[in-house]
Design a protein that fits this description.
This protein has about 450 residues and is α/β, with parallel strands linked by helices. The protein is about 55% helix and about 5% strand. The protein is built from 21 helices and 5 strands. α1 packs antiparallel against α3 (about 35-60).
Length: about 450
Amino acid sequence: MMAGVGEMLASALVGEVVSKLSSSLWNEIGLLYNFRTDLEDIKGTLTQLIAFLEDAERQSRRGHGGSMSKWLERLKSATKDIGDLISNYEARIPVNGEKNSDKLKLIISNFFSEFNTLLIAHKIKGMRKKLNNIAAEKAYFTDVVGFDEQQEINNRATTSDLETIIVGREKEKEKLVHLLLDAKEEGDFGIIAIVGFGGLGKTTLAQLVFNDKRVNEPAFHLKAWVYVSMKFDFKKIVENLIESIKNSRGNPGTYNTEEDACKELQGLLQGKKFLIVLDDLWEENWKNLDKLKRVLRGGMKSSKVILTTRTGIIAISMGAQPHFIEFLSDENCWRLFSQKAFKSDVERGNKELVEIGKQIVQKCKGVPLAAQALGAIMPFKDGVDAWKSVRDSDLWELEEESELLSKLEILPSLKLSYYNMPSCLKLCFAYCSIFPKGSQIKKS
């Protein structure tokens, strides 16, 4: 299993319980039977723990130590008890989707009249006390899960500079360049979204298009590249756009307010035909996305914006024309893999290693980042037997390979998609991980 799975399951469970406690049903139960203080305290404690656990997930260090693992198990157990109590009553109270407050109170009153509400109150108080005791102990682990969010953003930041090895994207590049050079006017500007999960090469494709000579002047008067990141900082995005546009004209300056920065950017774009790349956009809040679109108005109508994202929801919210990036062929994955895997021409000429290598490449399933990461592992593997061990292993479960793959950015890239799932999907994902690879899961 990947590192940090304990934290993953804990935060997903906590998130689900907080969601349930926020429902209208439990708000009414708390008001009617004086549970409200206890329920609010439980919800508040769990909400604070979510931030702590998400911090731990992002860090995802190996070897937190036995005390950390035991604490997580106690937290999961306490949270599960609370969740079970909630689910038990939700299943037995005949709400049937009723939303009306007065009717809901009547249903709840009729149900609880058959039970000893003091016993229920005692259970909730006991759970509250147990949870608070566990939560108080998290102070012992703050040094373990300290997380520098800005450092993570810096580590993932991209530029418009082309990578040295790029294969299999020529047709997609030509298609996107053609769309950019299409002079028809599309509202304020045209938007193209390159969509796909982590490691498929969205940024690489955007770099190819951005650096194509055909999209330089006179096709576009201004070009700018901005790495957006998971942390949507509107003022920072605007300032980085200004800096990118002014790159050859001196320092962009500093701006006291968001409004000052917006005016400066709109002045630079006014009447110009621009090409802007917004790389790695995660923000799904439509208000923030609309704000981002508004600040880019003022240029020529045939201006274009390219954004890269992992989700089609963002493409739709931005009113973008989506391009779903394609998987690479095994042949192109082999080209990426082989350029990193072989230490010498002697190895490159070893037919047995080549055959094993091509079998390893099939594990990549068309994902270029996987091909490059696996290729980078192979120079540390001496001889046919070592190569076979990689071919025959589940790389995600072997500690040695997992650590190498983490350093080579493939596991962190895939984990990001997990971290941004809703809590309910995280639990579903964890449940599916119980089944051996290749199993058929029957739904009831």
